Amino acid sequence: MADQVASHYAGGNDIVAAIAESLRKAGKDMDKLTTADLGTVDEFHIRGRQATLELARSLNLTPESHVLDIGCGLGGPARTLVETYHCRVTGIDLTPEFCDAAAALCDWVGLSDQVSFRQGDATALPFDDSMFDAAMTIHVAMNIARKDLVYAEARRVLKPGARFGVYDVLQGEGGEVLYPVPWAREKSISHLATPDEMKSLLTKAGFKILEVQDSTEEGQRWFEAMAARMAAGAVPAVTFQSFLGNDFPQMARNQVANLRDRRIRTVTYICQA
Ligand SMILES: C[S@@+](CC[C@H](N)C(=O)[O-])C[C@H]1O[C@@H](n2cnc3c(N)ncnc32)[C@H](O)[C@@H]1O
Hints:
The protein has helices at residues 2-10, 15-25, 35-42, 48-56, 76-85, 96-109, 147-157, 195-204, 216-231, 241-244, 248-260; strands at 66-70, 88-93, 115-119, 132-138, 158-171, 208-214, 264-272. The protein is of the alpha/beta class and 273 residues long. It has a single domain, classed as Rossmann fold. It has a 7-stranded mixed sheet with strand order 3-2-1-4-5-7-6, sandwiched between helices. The longest helix has 16 residues, at 216-231. The model has no long low-confidence stretch (mean pLDDT 95). The structure holds S-adenosylmethionine. S-adenosylmethionine (SAM) binds at residues 5, 9, 43-45, 71-73, 76-77, 93-95, 98, 121-123, 138-140, 143-144, 182-183.
């Protein structure tokens, strides 16, 4: 299962080379790249950087904070936190190619000192108890059947009282998900929890839920705008297509339908350990 998830994301091409080529083709100077240049590829979730900033606002971050990003992908959310709060972030991700690419992208924008990445599984975190001042996980658990382990592990590595931000794709009331979607080309690696299941999972792991925010409508508008831009050929310099490949336009169209029909929902939970 874990291998299938990692190969879904890694795609088989050289991710760093593909992103660099797209940026060069768009006329970007690789020596003067900013995190803003990367936001359309390295913030790999619905509503991109804006959603990361919204989540981060509730994590009580200071320059002294050491934050864990569970399922960090290409590291965009980690870099956004470092740039905004001047904190330190450790990212962990199942897909080795994403961890390597995340480190390379940090080098490009000069943020390697404050962010580090490590390959690993969210269901068995390679960290000591009570190590982190805050943690977040963005669009990760939809690939993981054992969410109970993910949240128990997050609780274990957080200091008592620390904040945990979860922004995920949930099963909606509108029927079966239409595939392919960005996290799965078919059902076998997709494991969506319902909003009721999420509340129970987080509570059973020992978290107090402080806030719940459903952003399905905003997510729908964001994906509609992206699908419209792609249909018009007006795509940004670099997109998720760099690693997801040529079926990304179909994934985007399916996401518009999945969100519109409420087959999926996007929900944020701000929790306290
Ligand atoms: C849609 S991406 C989101 C990446 C990142 N959080 C972001 O928002 O840009 C999902 C990520 O979850 C990772 N992932 C899936 N299952 C995982 C697991 N069991 N442990 C750690 N990471 C996992 C994948 O490798 C992928 O990088």
